Amino acid sequence: MLNFDFYNPTRIAFGKGKVAEIDKLVPAEARVLIVYGGTSAKKNGTLDEVKAALGGRYVEEFSGIEPNPTYETLMKAVAKIKANRLDYLLAVGGGSVIDGTKFVAAAVYAEGDPWEILLQRGANVKQAMPYGTVLTLPATGSEMNDGSVISRTETASGLHDKLYFTSEHVFPQFSVLDPSKSYTLPPRQLANGVVDAYTHIMEQYLTYPVEARVQDRFAEGLLQTLIEVGPKVLANPQDYDTQANFMWVATLALNGLIGSGVPSDWSTHMIGHEITALHGLDHAQTLAIILPTMLSLRRDVKRAKLLQYAERVWHISEGTEDARIEAAIQNTRAFFESLSVPTRLSAYNIGADAIPALLAQLESHGMVKLGEHQDVTLDKSREVLEASI
């Protein structure tokens, strides 16, 4: 097992009715900005519930955070905070709203151009506004980690950027996880959430063995749970137990536990970000496209873990090693497809003519040595994209 430091200060309030605990979790004197996306938080009553829990605190709202939160929109929130002397943030939504809130929290204190937070991957973040979250869409795990992905459409280069940053200063102080808040989500968002969580686990699990038995078994259990509950959450989204297991898996998939002491990949995510930036696909859709191909084309360097994955997650123990690996990869692709998330670029009307621009994006962002071995060069990325058509 590799050496590691694990730190996660986020308090989790899990279960029905937990929104009411916001009154105990947010300082009584706080001047709060509630940050959310579209109209769903209003329509399903969550926003009113949150405001009731905040009681007599001074509260303002900021809506309109996009599914891929943009720098341009988020800087409007920063301006509002500064103009109205707000000092506490409350994100109500899924990963995009929470990611956006993280950036806002850090950008308020930025010295110079706040976009440098993304360009420096968070290395220049020295402090951030305190904030909590009310999760309404299980998927990204952003409610219990220090990472954020932000898009920008207006750049000096003319490129559409989608970049990430991490900083221990942007962990949520608390996150309210009430599975009933996911009851009314449309099938597409639920399916995306399953794919997103699954791929988060795979990026940390399916690399190479380092005798991290605890992390491996933990990751395998989470993957098996997603395989079990994924179809059920789509078939019956108002089943509390199914939603509860789905929500907790998605949180555990990226709160640092299974990634501690093991190598991680993330090449699927980096390529996927560029597809979203240029073609507007949902984040999870890009992961469903790239992951199976990435596993297939890098099966030699991932051989030991692919065999372990085949046996422990998919219960494939017969046949040659190559046959077992192929079956596990095809099962992965079939699982995503069973959730109505297509796994080919062509299914989204993206052809080979799009590949040069995607490679140019990767190169411009320095994504030329990706993966656990830093062996996913631009040539390998080209291979993956071509095989994903």
Give an account of the 3D structure.
A hairpin with an 8-residue loop joins strand 6 and strand 7 (161-166). This protein is globular. With 389 residues, it is α/β, with parallel strands linked by helices. The protein starts with 10 loop residues before the first strand and ends with a helix. Helix 4 packs across helix 5. It has helices at residues 22-25, 40-43, 46-54, 71-84, 95-107, 116-119, 187-205, 213-235, 240-252, 267-279, 283-297, 303-312, 321-338, 355-364, 378-387, and strands at residues 11-14, 31-36, 58-62, 88-93, 131-135, 147-152, 161-166, 174-177. It has 15 helices and 8 strands. The longest helix is centred in the middle third of the chain and has 23 residues, at 213-235. Strands 1-8-5-4-2-3 form a 6-stranded parallel beta sheet, sandwiched between helices. Strands 6-7 form a two-stranded antiparallel sheet. The mean pLDDT is 96. Helix content is 46%, strand content 11%.
